[in-house]
Specification:
By secondary structure, the protein is α+β, with helices and mostly antiparallel strands. It is built from twelve helices and 15 strands. The model has no long low-confidence stretch (mean pLDDT 85).
Protein backbone atom coordinates (compact mmCIF):
# COMPACT_ATOMS: atom_id res chain seq x y z
CA UNK A 1 0.00 0.00 0.00
CA UNK A 2 2.81 2.42 0.86
CA UNK A 3 4.55 1.76 -2.44
CA UNK A 4 1.28 2.15 -4.37
CA UNK A 5 0.69 5.54 -2.74
CA UNK A 6 4.28 6.50 -3.51
CA UNK A 7 3.79 5.68 -7.20
CA UNK A 8 0.66 7.83 -7.37
CA UNK A 9 2.32 10.77 -5.63
CA UNK A 10 5.47 10.56 -7.77
CA UNK A 11 3.54 9.70 -10.97
CA UNK A 12 6.39 7.31 -11.75
CA UNK A 13 7.50 3.82 -10.71
CA UNK A 14 11.16 4.87 -11.00
CA UNK A 15 10.82 7.99 -8.84
CA UNK A 16 8.73 6.09 -6.27
CA UNK A 17 11.42 3.41 -6.13
CA UNK A 18 14.16 5.99 -5.61
CA UNK A 19 12.22 7.66 -2.79
CA UNK A 20 11.52 4.29 -1.13
CA UNK A 21 15.08 3.01 -1.58
CA UNK A 22 14.07 -0.07 -3.55
CA UNK A 23 14.21 -1.16 -7.19
CA UNK A 24 11.53 -0.25 -9.75
CA UNK A 25 10.92 -3.97 -10.17
CA UNK A 26 10.10 -4.29 -6.47
CA UNK A 27 7.63 -1.42 -6.70
CA UNK A 28 5.97 -2.89 -9.78
CA UNK A 29 5.68 -6.28 -8.09
CA UNK A 30 4.18 -4.72 -4.96
CA UNK A 31 1.51 -2.92 -7.00
CA UNK A 32 0.69 -6.10 -8.96
CA UNK A 33 0.39 -8.02 -5.68
CA UNK A 34 -1.97 -5.38 -4.28
CA UNK A 35 -4.08 -5.49 -7.45
CA UNK A 36 -4.24 -9.29 -7.29
CA UNK A 37 -5.28 -9.21 -3.63
CA UNK A 38 -8.02 -6.67 -4.30
CA UNK A 39 -9.09 -8.22 -7.59
CA UNK A 40 -9.11 -4.88 -9.45
CA UNK A 41 -6.73 -2.91 -11.63
CA UNK A 42 -5.47 0.21 -9.87
CA UNK A 43 -3.23 1.77 -12.53
CA UNK A 44 -3.24 2.13 -16.29
CA UNK A 45 0.37 1.70 -17.48
CA UNK A 46 1.92 2.54 -20.82
CA UNK A 47 5.52 3.21 -21.79
CA UNK A 48 4.86 6.96 -21.63
CA UNK A 49 2.00 7.49 -19.23
CA UNK A 50 0.73 6.36 -15.86
CA UNK A 51 -2.83 7.03 -14.73
CA UNK A 52 -5.26 5.83 -12.08
CA UNK A 53 -8.28 3.69 -12.73
CA UNK A 54 -11.50 4.69 -10.99
CA UNK A 55 -10.81 2.04 -8.35
CA UNK A 56 -7.23 3.24 -7.94
CA UNK A 57 -8.33 6.85 -7.54
CA UNK A 58 -10.85 5.81 -4.89
CA UNK A 59 -8.27 3.79 -2.98
CA UNK A 60 -5.76 6.64 -3.09
CA UNK A 61 -8.36 9.16 -1.90
CA UNK A 62 -9.31 7.00 1.09
CA UNK A 63 -5.90 5.64 2.05
CA UNK A 64 -3.51 8.56 1.51
CA UNK A 65 -4.62 10.74 4.48
CA UNK A 66 -4.49 7.79 6.85
CA UNK A 67 -1.02 6.70 5.76
CA UNK A 68 0.27 10.28 6.09
CA UNK A 69 -1.07 10.44 9.65
CA UNK A 70 0.54 7.09 10.39
CA UNK A 71 3.89 8.28 8.99
CA UNK A 72 3.68 11.42 11.12
CA UNK A 73 2.76 9.43 14.22
CA UNK A 74 5.69 7.06 13.73
CA UNK A 75 8.06 9.98 13.12
CA UNK A 76 6.93 11.65 16.33
CA UNK A 77 7.39 8.44 18.30
CA UNK A 78 10.87 7.94 16.87
CA UNK A 79 11.85 11.49 17.82
CA UNK A 80 10.35 11.21 21.31
CA UNK A 81 13.70 10.07 22.73
CA UNK A 82 14.88 13.66 22.32
CA UNK A 83 12.57 16.54 21.49
CA UNK A 84 15.62 18.64 20.60
CA UNK A 85 16.84 16.23 17.88
CA UNK A 86 15.51 15.48 14.44
CA UNK A 87 14.95 16.80 10.94
CA UNK A 88 13.13 20.01 9.95
CA UNK A 89 12.21 20.42 6.28
CA UNK A 90 12.12 23.99 4.94
CA UNK A 91 11.22 25.60 1.64
CA UNK A 92 11.82 29.14 0.35
CA UNK A 93 12.61 31.00 -2.86
CA UNK A 94 16.34 31.14 -3.70
CA UNK A 95 16.46 34.88 -2.92
CA UNK A 96 15.78 34.12 0.76
CA UNK A 97 18.18 31.20 1.10
CA UNK A 98 21.48 32.97 1.72
CA UNK A 99 20.26 36.13 3.41
CA UNK A 100 17.52 34.71 5.67
CA UNK A 101 17.47 30.92 5.98
CA UNK A 102 21.19 30.30 6.48
CA UNK A 103 21.54 32.79 9.38
CA UNK A 104 18.36 31.44 11.02
CA UNK A 105 19.56 27.85 10.68
CA UNK A 106 22.95 28.74 12.13
CA UNK A 107 21.40 30.52 15.10
CA UNK A 108 18.90 27.75 15.79
CA UNK A 109 21.48 24.96 15.60
CA UNK A 110 23.67 26.88 18.06
CA UNK A 111 20.86 26.41 20.58
CA UNK A 112 19.77 22.94 19.40
CA UNK A 113 22.77 21.15 17.83
CA UNK A 114 20.79 17.92 17.40
CA UNK A 115 18.60 19.54 14.73
CA UNK A 116 19.23 18.87 11.04
CA UNK A 117 17.67 20.70 8.09
CA UNK A 118 16.54 19.70 4.62
CA UNK A 119 16.09 22.87 2.52
CA UNK A 120 14.28 23.04 -0.83
CA UNK A 121 14.74 26.33 -2.71
CA UNK A 122 12.28 27.12 -5.48
CA UNK A 123 10.48 30.12 -6.92
CA UNK A 124 7.43 27.89 -7.37
CA UNK A 125 4.91 27.77 -4.54
CA UNK A 126 5.51 24.46 -2.77
CA UNK A 127 2.65 22.24 -1.60
CA UNK A 128 3.78 21.63 1.98
CA UNK A 129 1.67 18.52 2.54
CA UNK A 130 2.56 16.92 -0.79
CA UNK A 131 6.28 17.64 -0.31
CA UNK A 132 6.25 16.84 3.44
CA UNK A 133 7.63 20.29 4.27
CA UNK A 134 7.42 21.49 7.87
CA UNK A 135 7.87 25.25 7.37
CA UNK A 136 7.86 27.51 4.33
CA UNK A 137 9.06 31.08 3.76
CA UNK A 138 7.69 33.42 1.08
CA UNK A 139 7.98 37.07 0.16
CA UNK A 140 4.98 38.94 -1.17
CA UNK A 141 1.45 38.52 0.14
CA UNK A 142 0.04 35.97 2.59
CA UNK A 143 0.50 32.44 1.15
CA UNK A 144 -3.12 31.27 1.40
CA UNK A 145 -6.20 30.44 3.45
CA UNK A 146 -5.42 26.75 3.97
CA UNK A 147 -2.19 27.50 5.79
CA UNK A 148 -1.13 29.08 9.06
CA UNK A 149 0.83 32.18 8.04
CA UNK A 150 2.76 34.76 10.05
CA UNK A 151 4.05 38.02 8.63
CA UNK A 152 7.55 38.27 10.04
CA UNK A 153 8.53 41.70 8.76
CA UNK A 154 8.30 44.15 5.89
CA UNK A 155 10.69 43.78 2.97
CA UNK A 156 11.20 47.37 1.81
CA UNK A 157 11.76 47.93 -1.89
CA UNK A 158 14.07 50.84 -2.65
CA UNK A 159 15.36 52.53 -5.78
CA UNK A 160 19.12 52.37 -6.09
CA UNK A 161 21.98 52.81 -8.53
CA UNK A 162 25.70 52.21 -8.78
CA UNK A 163 28.04 55.14 -8.04
CA UNK A 164 29.42 54.79 -11.57
CA UNK A 165 25.94 55.27 -13.07
CA UNK A 166 25.21 58.32 -10.93
CA UNK A 167 28.60 59.84 -11.77
CA UNK A 168 27.91 59.49 -15.50
CA UNK A 169 24.17 60.27 -15.66
CA UNK A 170 23.41 62.21 -12.49
CA UNK A 171 20.94 61.39 -9.74
CA UNK A 172 17.21 61.81 -10.45
CA UNK A 173 15.46 63.82 -7.76
CA UNK A 174 11.84 63.27 -8.91
CA UNK A 175 9.79 60.52 -10.52
CA UNK A 176 9.53 62.61 -13.68
CA UNK A 177 13.31 62.78 -13.83
CA UNK A 178 13.52 59.02 -13.20
CA UNK A 179 11.49 58.39 -16.36
CA UNK A 180 14.37 59.84 -18.40
CA UNK A 181 16.90 57.39 -16.97
CA UNK A 182 17.82 53.85 -17.93
CA UNK A 183 16.25 51.35 -15.53
CA UNK A 184 16.20 47.59 -15.01
CA UNK A 185 13.08 45.44 -14.78
CA UNK A 186 12.05 42.09 -13.33
CA UNK A 187 9.90 39.36 -14.86
CA UNK A 188 8.21 36.78 -12.67
CA UNK A 189 10.02 33.44 -13.20
CA UNK A 190 6.77 31.45 -13.38
CA UNK A 191 4.55 33.70 -15.54
CA UNK A 192 7.10 35.84 -17.37
CA UNK A 193 5.07 38.97 -16.58
CA UNK A 194 6.83 42.26 -15.96
CA UNK A 195 6.62 43.45 -12.36
CA UNK A 196 5.83 47.17 -12.08
CA UNK A 197 7.69 49.22 -9.52
CA UNK A 198 5.76 49.72 -6.29
CA UNK A 199 6.13 53.28 -5.01
CA UNK A 200 4.93 54.97 -1.85
CA UNK A 201 3.56 58.31 -3.09
CA UNK A 202 2.20 60.44 -0.24
CA UNK A 203 1.12 57.35 1.67
CA UNK A 204 -0.53 55.65 -1.29
CA UNK A 205 0.84 52.57 -3.06
CA UNK A 206 1.35 53.42 -6.74
CA UNK A 207 2.34 50.91 -9.42
CA UNK A 208 4.53 52.36 -12.15
CA UNK A 209 6.07 50.89 -15.27
CA UNK A 210 9.63 52.00 -15.93
CA UNK A 211 11.71 52.39 -19.12
CA UNK A 212 13.66 49.15 -18.69
CA UNK A 213 16.83 48.77 -20.75
CA UNK A 214 17.28 45.23 -19.39
CA UNK A 215 14.83 42.80 -17.81
CA UNK A 216 15.58 39.71 -15.75
CA UNK A 217 13.78 36.73 -14.25
CA UNK A 218 16.50 36.24 -11.63
CA UNK A 219 16.84 38.86 -8.91
CA UNK A 220 20.53 38.25 -8.22
CA UNK A 221 21.35 38.88 -11.87
CA UNK A 222 19.33 42.09 -11.82
CA UNK A 223 21.26 43.22 -8.74
CA UNK A 224 24.52 42.49 -10.58
CA UNK A 225 23.30 44.56 -13.54
CA UNK A 226 22.47 47.55 -11.33
CA UNK A 227 25.80 47.15 -9.56
CA UNK A 228 27.53 47.19 -12.96
CA UNK A 229 25.90 50.52 -13.84
CA UNK A 230 23.56 49.25 -16.55
CA UNK A 231 20.64 51.13 -15.02
CA UNK A 232 18.70 52.16 -11.95
CA UNK A 233 16.74 49.38 -10.24
CA UNK A 234 14.13 48.91 -7.55
CA UNK A 235 15.48 46.16 -5.34
CA UNK A 236 14.65 44.53 -2.03
CA UNK A 237 16.76 46.04 0.75
CA UNK A 238 17.48 42.70 2.42
CA UNK A 239 19.25 41.53 -0.75
CA UNK A 240 21.45 44.61 -1.19
CA UNK A 241 22.34 45.46 2.41
CA UNK A 242 25.98 44.38 1.92
CA UNK A 243 26.24 46.35 -1.34
CA UNK A 244 24.82 49.46 0.32
CA UNK A 245 27.12 49.10 3.33
CA UNK A 246 30.14 48.71 1.03
CA UNK A 247 29.13 51.64 -1.19
CA UNK A 248 28.62 49.50 -4.29
CA UNK A 249 24.98 50.63 -4.49
CA UNK A 250 23.45 53.96 -3.46
CA UNK A 251 19.76 54.21 -2.42
CA UNK A 252 18.01 57.19 -4.04
CA UNK A 253 14.50 58.69 -3.94
CA UNK A 254 14.07 57.12 -0.49
CA UNK A 255 10.73 58.81 0.19
CA UNK A 256 9.21 56.47 -2.41
CA UNK A 257 10.36 53.27 -0.63
CA UNK A 258 7.56 50.70 -0.57
CA UNK A 259 6.74 48.40 2.36
CA UNK A 260 3.90 46.48 0.69
CA UNK A 261 5.96 43.30 0.33
CA UNK A 262 6.21 41.16 3.45
CA UNK A 263 8.21 38.13 4.52
CA UNK A 264 5.94 35.28 5.64
CA UNK A 265 6.50 32.08 7.54
CA UNK A 266 3.81 29.47 6.90
CA UNK A 267 3.03 25.87 7.78
CA UNK A 268 0.12 23.42 7.40
CA UNK A 269 -2.78 23.21 9.81
CA UNK A 270 -1.81 20.36 12.11
CA UNK A 271 -3.22 19.06 15.33
CA UNK A 272 0.16 17.79 16.48
CA UNK A 273 3.23 19.74 15.40
CA UNK A 274 6.54 18.12 16.43
CA UNK A 275 8.13 19.97 19.32
CA UNK A 276 11.29 20.74 17.32
CA UNK A 277 9.21 22.33 14.54
CA UNK A 278 7.16 24.36 17.02
CA UNK A 279 10.36 25.58 18.67
CA UNK A 280 11.78 26.61 15.30
CA UNK A 281 8.58 28.48 14.37
CA UNK A 282 8.57 30.33 17.69
CA UNK A 283 12.30 31.03 17.37
CA UNK A 284 11.90 32.57 13.90
CA UNK A 285 8.80 34.54 14.91
CA UNK A 286 10.54 36.09 17.93
CA UNK A 287 10.18 39.86 17.73
CA UNK A 288 12.85 41.54 15.67
CA UNK A 289 14.86 38.42 14.79
CA UNK A 290 14.13 38.33 11.06
CA UNK A 291 13.85 42.11 10.79
CA UNK A 292 17.47 42.32 11.93
CA UNK A 293 18.48 40.14 8.96
CA UNK A 294 16.55 42.15 6.38
CA UNK A 295 17.11 45.78 7.42
CA UNK A 296 19.91 48.11 6.42
Amino acid sequence: MTLFLGVVRAKSFARAATEAGVTPQAVSKAVRTLEAELGVRLLHRTTRKLSLTDEGARLFELADPGLRQLDEALAQVRSARSEDDGLIRLTAPPSLGVHVLVPLMQQFRAAYPGITFDVQLSDLFTDLVESRIDVGFRSGTSPGQNLVARRLCDLPMTICAAPSYLAQHGEPKTLDALARHACTGFRRPVTGRMVPWELNVDGDLVFQDVPAVATFNDVQTEIAAVRAGIGIGQLSMHLIRDDVAAGRLVPILRKFDSNSVGLYLYYPHRTHIPVRVRRFIDFVAEAGRVAALTSV
